[in-house]
Description:
Elements: H1 3-8, E1 38-44, E2 51-57, E3 63-64, E4 76-81, E5 84-89, E6 95-100, E7 103-112, E8 124-131, E9 134-139, E10 144-148, E11 159-164, E12 179-185, E13 188-193, E14 209-214, E15 235-236, E16 242-248, E17 252-257, E18 275-279, E19 286-291, E20 304-312, E21 315-323, E22 326-332, E23 352-357, E24 363-367, E25 374-378, E26 384-389, E27 393-398
Antiparallel strand pairs: 1-2, 1-27, 2-3, 4-5, 5-6, 6-7, 8-9, 9-10, 10-11, 12-13, 13-14, 14-15, 16-17, 17-18, 18-19, 20-21, 21-22, 23-24, 24-25, 25-26
Amino acid sequence: xxxxxxxxxxxxxxxxxxxxxxxxxxxxxxxxxxxxxxxxxxxxxxxxxxxxxxxxxxxxxxxxxxxxxxxxxxxxxxxxxxxxxxxxxxxxxxxxxxxxxxxxxxxxxxxxxxxxxxxxxxxxxxxxxxxxxxxxxxxxxxxxxxxxxxxxxxxxxxxxxxxxxxxxxxxxxxxxxxxxxxxxxxxxxxxxxxxxxxxxxxxxxxxxxxxxxxxxxxxxxxxxxxxxxxxxxxxxxxxxxxxxxxxxxxxxxxxxxxxxxxxxxxxxxxxxxxxxxxxxxxxxxxxxxxxxxxxxxxxxxxxxxxxxxxxxxxxxxxxxxxxxxxxxxxxxxxxxxxxxxxxxxxxxxxxxxxxxxxxxxxxxxxxxxxxxxxxxxxxxxxxxxxxxxxxxxxxxxxxxx
Length: 401
């Protein structure tokens, strides 16, 4: 179970009505902002009683809006493309909604992500865009990725087709290989699957996989054509509990994996079997560039590795989880794989909820707090350069394409 998965399991039933926000310069802003110059932030109440969305004006001293989309449930992901943003209702919410930056409080649509109304949940995790008329909806609770039209004017026209992941089903009864994240690189869709067994990412007989599809044809690519034809076509991973992709042009495709920090929930010792993997998009080989520490060594300087952001060929950051709401920030060089075992100054033992690479070249660090939820901008030389106050704890930050 990853940090984000743990957060999703906490739920409540009270409504959150959020009417004001403070920006980087101390004030609430207009609700009509140009999408290209705005960061979109998904937020959640500290007690998980509700969620919301805020915009941050990158051209006006990081001024923030008030809460735009108050909801009485907390488990939402976030996507954006062009002039729109898309809150994604995850476990047992099972919806994709669409909003425009021109009128960000007015919902354009909200479509179901269930195959049938009787399905328990599809648990959608991400929406990866090819263009305004085609995107891939990754659903953690299903072995089918939906091909969708984000511009569809009716729910019946939303779903265009499917990608089949049934070859990767794991050994439990869920019927899903738990796809959790996707990214498009050079015309190929990469989808990572956790393949947990009964919520355990450490089952010795089940390895995570990355499936690769041609975006033009929607056909799966055989990444190991010399293997036995009965084997899955995807890329097998040695790490456990993959968390998500990080890609930077000219630097490469990377994947972070959390391992099994919450094994104690099952009465088992904590497992350090995660890390950061580089995927070669030419031959599909993998290299472990940052290890969370050998299982038996007792040396685990990063804790369990969480979110990952690549800024450039020499600069990357990742979060390291020690315990719930006890997370630190670490820097590493994605070219050499050398990671600093000392946390970035000022970012040790706090509640780092999410990371993102901003168009300003800085790392955006989302920090949870009952009293002061915020985003802090950290420069490549590890100096804090800006603090942006929020109405709730940030869970996802999205910038223009």
